[in-house]
Write a structure and sequence with these properties.
5-stranded mixed sheet; two-stranded parallel sheet; globular
């Protein structure tokens, strides 16, 4: 985000699966399959912000892949994640 400039987020829908790719800023997640790995849009070259919104039911974000701490994402509640290059993991906000 740049102060004084209007920022726009792009949004896409993705089916829940063991591995998904972050192809937009906001990802609406269909289905209820546990997600263990989220591939960053640009590999691990950059830090990245991602907002996931489960739309069909709760989705478990598991910690067996590159998600630092697992949790259950509740339907229609946004989950903000930041990809840390140093940790090579997605860090979930603490507000869920």
């Amino acid at each position: 985000m740049i102060p004084g400039v209007v920022s726009k987020l792009n949004e896409k829908t993705v089916a829940s699966a063991a591995t998904i790719k972050a192809t937009a800023d906001v990802m609406r997640v269909t289905g209820t399959t546990q997600i263990n790995t989220i591939q960053p849009a640009h590999g691990n070259a950059y830090a990245q912000l991602l907002i996931l919104i489960p739309v069909d039911g709760s989705v478990i974000l598991g910690a067996s892949g590159n998600i630092a701490v697992g949790l259950t994402a509740v339907i229609n509640r946004d989950v903000w994640l930041v990809y840390s290059r140093a940790a090579n993991k997605w860090i979930i906000n603490s507000g869920v």
